[in-house]
Amino acid sequence: MKSYLTVEEILSRKHFEHTEIVAGACGVNRYVKWVHVVESIEATHLLKGNELILSTGLGWKDDPRNLLHFVQQLIDCHATGLCIEMNTYIKTIPQEVLTLANTHQFPIIVFHQEVLFVEITHDIHSLIINKQYQLLKELEQFSLKLNNMMLEVNHHDQFLSLLQSYLDVNVMTIFTSGRVECTPNMSANQRNRILHDEVKHDENLSKMTKTVQILGDAYAELMILSRNRELNEFDALILDRTANILGQFWLRDLYVKEKRLDRHDEWLHSWINGEIKRDLLYHQLSSLHDSSDFSGGIVWVCKVKELQARSPNKEYTYFKLMTRTVFEQFGFHLFFTESEDHLIILALDKRKNESWKERMTKAISGIHQYDSQHRKSYTELSIGAGQYVQDLMKMNKSYQSALQTIELQKFVDEEYTSYFYEDLHMFRMLNILKEQGNLEETVYGYLEPVIEYDKSFNGELLTTLRIYLECNGSKQETSKKLFIVRQTLYHRIEKLEKILGGDFMHPKKRLELEFMLAAYTYLKRHNKEMNVKNQSCYISQNI
Questions:
Q1: Cα(504)–Cα(506) distance, rounded to whole angstroms?
Q2: Taking the model in full, what pTM does it have?
Q3: 434-542: what CATH class?
Q4: Which Gene3D superfamilies match (predicted)?
Q5: What's the pLDDT tens digit per position in 142-199?
């Protein structure tokens, strides 16, 4: 099927009975997508490619040499050919024009009798439009067949067989995992030549490719090849429809597999709780994957507010599938299990562990990026990653530290927060000091004069101190961040020097102040969180 004609087909129409091909006869198989009447010798801005040009020669009647310039333009714009009505304005065609057309296999057709261009354009355009309508009809029928097959078939090779027989082409499916399938089968030599792109200079071979995507990532490359004919736009449309339905078929298959995995997670709970025996763990891993391939692992917990508010089982399965797809690209094999209020992901590293943090950061960013592009509304995505362990028997240690990371994130400023337990060193220390009960006393021992001054005079000394330290004592940068003039900043710094001492920017004292400011923020957030919890408990008890 094609929505366009060839020059040869057009020459068989009734309006071309008294014509002659005077040059470029080897180009009669060129495609004609439209017919255009042009009388101006400057035609570049009028053409888009594959037009058959009709002309009476009016534009070059006074100087036949202009025809050479005109034909060169048509060739440069990838027009299909030129039809000239002779004896109206011109009698002959210069030899250099015929030579140029022969060189480029550009058909020049002459009418020896007067013709009506309006009838020619109407006839050919009607034919092209009818072909386009037939093409859409065939495409719709093929799509319907694909959709019906979605309900009936249980393996993707049936879609590939349909594509192969319908277009009479060879089909090659190249999976991102490295597996290659050919329909029908081809020799190893042929396959390797195509895979290594050794056939790109083979003029007899026509090929098209289409990427099959699942959850925004390439899952396979679908390729069609033909030596019998040049592949056209109809082939491209059929290939596109097949790739789309294959993506849906494979996504459904992966979804079913993910649901099946959910039924066998009892041993995962034993693993993260440190209750599994080594031989049982490696037996479970070996049944799913070669455990010797793992260089280490990390547990991360994930809270998705929107998912909990909807249908948990269905949404969690989709979220798991999307997460697994993204993380596999960065060298992690995932296991999922659930607790009452969060999803637990065990990520086993299949690559060198030195780069695990960088790869995991990119994977988590990939999840957020996919969410923003497809609007799945995982906006309340809280992620806490525990310690990376090389001994897989210590995954319980990683799990406990992941839970601590989620808890600590509530009390950390956004600029200091992190997904990773190892990045929250200072806040882990603050948590320990808080639990021992003397953190408030220590913090207020350092910052109370500044806090009390702000309360008494409605000042901004504490904020000024924090920004001034963050800017490494740069007065210009500090005043910009605080949106105040330099004179106001100088006045505040003088007040801070009187309260804290003129040496408060000395390295040792500065370090103490930075720690106390972080602790002060932590305590404010912690106390706010506790107040919310106490209010919730009070309301629940009264209800």
A1: 5
A2: 0.50
A3: mainly alpha
A4: PucR C-terminal helix-turn-helix domain
A5: 989 998 888 888 889 899 999 999 888 999 998 887 788 898 888 888 888 887 776 6
